[in-house]
Design goal:
heterodimer; A: Rossmann fold; 5-stranded parallel beta sheet; 13 strands; 17% strand; B: alpha+beta; 7-stranded mixed beta sheet; 4-stranded mixed beta sheet
Chain lengths: 376, 349
């Protein structure tokens, strides 16, 4: 098997060379605690067993960059309510279907009870549903970081050009830099123990490396933007180790094959034309963060589900025993949660981190459980 | 044979006709459909008797029986259709006990409005598959449900077979030290089907691997009679089959990612769909577990057969009270290959 442009970044021999370099360069008397912000990195780290190649002094902490995990329960309840409205067809990304909401519901369970919930692979699929079903009210449940935001902006522009009257977007798009700030400035002090960040891959293709300069200057934490392949992760770890050993605090770009300093200007323009920052938005685990999410601008109000339907603000507490919040901040490891692996499993998730394969709990459970058993 | 005379009724319109409720009512239309379609396609001495059952002699030894319901969307996909699957799937379930499959039954649930041309195509696929496999379809049933109460066509097939003397193959027989063998590349069927799903159409040259495996099994048993376990990794893929066997036998498994045959096109399709090929379905592959001293002999026998040319030893059975299936990744790390949770869903990022 050889997939060009992919297998090169999964090469086991190169991995051993890089791992040896990391071992050679770490200072014996110190620990290196790096947070990989993105769930995509978390997934890659577990799927390829990257941690096995790292020396014990390098610890990877899993961040909140899992779009499914950070969405508060109240917003999922909103989506279910929308799906249950007569005539509505709710289009959603597959990851959202199984996330537990209030009253034992999830979108999947609401679907089984009769709500018309459709799984889509892209925002454009939701738009097509609206075109193909003119008698139905199609609502697109838009979630995700800067990676999935531009496509949402584009379909809203397209819907206006087409004059669609039966298409709206329930916008839940969030921004990466405010979440990184919230982690480092977390009141429980857990953020201060982080020595550096492995920055997002796909998000950075959109926002560029420049988007991190202010964060790095303000909080003095190095950031290395890295691709989602396992060699990218190892290379980023080496670059972070070198920054720390050299006393540098910089934004570096390991993922230069895809990320530029300024990012994707066209995508940014589409977002700026359709969307504006909310004053604040609730994040699971991080609470209310100012200017951390997008809403639809007034001149696209016709396509805003929050304007066409009644969407109340719901403050719903996470399940009491669930530690998703602390896990999303990197303050706790999944196995430190009381319900991890017993009450909460991928088949019966209590918290969102157990649902998405990008969630830290699901990754620990599905890929790393044997190591915990061995450590017992 | 009923009292219907062919010369006084119009033949079934297999070009433009559709299934209607009379085709399942037990009346003349149903008999006509059976005679003009099923009987002609499956033609054999048992069906020709037109009884509600098939009578046949059985040899001495242990009988094996397996049944499998087939529902798939789309019904036609690169490399096969639901008809091939319905025959191959049940033959393979019988064969995985080390048995020689002998006879099949087929039950059809048709949805009102289903094009007769499609039905004919499917039935002809079944006939071709049964003929090639040398396993006749000797009895059957047809029912029609109202429009909206079915998904075109559902097919349930049952198969019986005989296990030769001295063969004892079962999912609970894997023992620490045994070797795990795989007959060929994984994920072909699942990717071929997915490439045709309406909201996911992509172009691919990958074809389903749907095929009857009893010939390969016979060749394997001839070389190594003491095979401990055999299973075809269909729904849920290789990962699910290994977990099932580990659980049944109360053992763990260690496999090597680099040893698992995987076509580049399948790997690439899984890559952009965000799927793990270990969980993607196969319809023409098998997993075998045998004592380590016989592993090389078994591997040679598999590779000598047309359906096992790419066979590989992919790992071994280990003692593990947690029954984990662990994998050494090509990258050099290790991880669990866990049970699938729900359906494998694409990721957002």
């Amino acid at each position: 098997m050889a997939i060009p442009y992919i297998d090169e970044f999964r090469d086991g021999d190169l991995a051993r060379v890089l791992a040896a370099k990391i071992v050679a360069e770490i200072q014996p008397d110190r620990r290196y605690r790096f947070m990989e912000f993105c769930g995509g990195h978390t997934h890659a780290i577990f799927r390829y067993g990257v941690q096995d190649l790292l020396p014990p002094a390098v610890e990877l902490i899993h961040g909140p960059g899992c779009p499914v995990c950070v969405l508060p329960i109240g917003r999922i309840d909103n989506a279910i309510m929308l799906a249950q409205q007569p005539g509505v067809m709710l289009a959603t990304y597959a990851d959202m279907l199984r996330v537990p909401a209030s009253a034992g519901l999830s979108l999947l369970k609401a679907k089984a009870q009769g709500a018309d919930v459709r799984m889509v692979y892209a925002a454009s699929d939701a738009l097509k549903l609206a075109q193909d079903n003119p008698e139905r009210e199609v609502v697109f449940f838009a979630i995700g970081f800067e990676t999935t935001t531009p496509p949402t902006a584009l379909v809203i522009q397209q819907a206006q050009r087409l004059g669609l009257r039966n298409f709206t977007v329930f916008c839940n798009h969030v921004l990466t830099p405010p979440a990184m700030q919230a982690i480092v400035a977390s009141p429980d002090g857990s953020g201060t123990a982080i020595d550096g960040f492995i920055g997002p891959a796909h998000v950075s293709t959109v926002i560029g490396t420049e988007a991190y300069h202010r964060f790095v200057a303000q909080y003095a934490k190095p950031v290395v933007i890295a691709g989602f392949e396992p060699l990218d992760v190892l290379q980023a770890v080496l670059m972070l180790v070198r920054q720390i050993n050299g006393g540098r605090v910089e934004v570096e770009n390991e993922y230069s094959r895809a990320v530029t300093p300024e990012g994707n200007r066209k995508a940014q323009a589409a977002m700026a034309e359709v969307l504006e920052l909310r004053d604040e938005f609730e994040w699971r685990g991080l609470g209310l963060l100012p200017h951390s999410a997008w809403q639809i601008k007034a001149h696209y109000a016709d396509f805003d589900a929050e304007r066409r339907f009644v969407v109340p603000t719901l403050a719903v507490q996470d399940a009491k025993a669930c530690e998703c919040g602390a896990i999303l901040r990197g303050a706790k490891k999944p196995q430190e949660c009381k319900v991890f692996g017993n009450v909460c499993t991928p088949d019966n998730p209590v918290g969102a981190c157990m649902v998405s394969s990008e969630g830290a709990c699901a990754a620990y459970y599905s890929y790393g459980r044997f190591k915990m058993e061995a450590a017992r | 044979m009923s009292g219907v005379r062919k010369d006084c009724i119009r033949p079934v319109d297999f070009k433009h006709g559709r299934v209607d409720l009379t085709h399942g009512s037990g009346g003349r239309a149903m008999t006509q459909l059976i005679e003009e379609l099923f009987l002609q396609a499956f033609d054999n001495e048992w069906l020709r008797q037109m009884n509600d059952q098939a009578r046949f002699n059985v040899g001495a030894g242990r009988m094996v029986m397996a049944t499998d319901g087939h529902v798939i969307s789309p019904l036609f996909f690169p490399g096969g259709d639901i008809g091939f699957l319905a025959v191959h799937g049940t033959i393979n379930d019988v064969a995985m006990a080390g048995a020689q499959p002998l006879y099949l039954s087929a039950g059809f649930i048709l949805e009102e409005g289903f094009p007769l041309a499609d039905l004919k195509r499917i039935v002809e696929s079944m006939a071709e598959a049964a003929k090639r496999a040398g396993v006749p379809i000797v009895t059957g049933d047809t029912k029609v449900v109202e429009r909206g109460k079915g998904d075109g066509v559902f097919i349930t097939t049952t198969g019986v077979g005989v296990v030769p003397e001295g063969i004892d193959i079962s999912g609970e027989r894997a023992q620490p030290g045994d070797k795990i063998l795989l007959s060929g590349s994984i994920g072909d069927h699942g990717v071929a089907v997915m490439s045709q799903r309406e909201n996911l159409t992509f172009e691919t040259t990958i074809e389903s691997d749907t095929v009857a495996l009893h010939g390969l099994v016979a060749a394997m048993l001839h070389a190594v009679p003491d095979i401990h376990c055999l299973r075809d990794p269909t729904r849920g893929g290789l990962a699910t089959t290994l977990n099932e066997l580990a659980r049944q036998s109360g053992v763990g498994m260690k496999i090597e990612e680099t040893q698992i045959p995987l076509r580049t096109q399948v790997a690439a399709a899984c890559e952009f769909l965000g799927l793990d090929p270990l969980y993607v379905a196969n319809e023409g592959k098998l997993v075998a577990i045998c004592p380590a001293p016989f592993a090389e002999t078994l591997l040679s026998a598999m590779r000598a057969h047309p359906l096992g040319q790419e066979a590989a030893i992919i790992g071994e059975v280990v003692a593990d009270p947690n029954r984990f299936v662990q994998m050494q990744t090509a990258f050099g790390g290790s991880r669990i290959v866990d049970w699938l949770t729900g359906e494998q869903l694409p990721r957002i990022c």
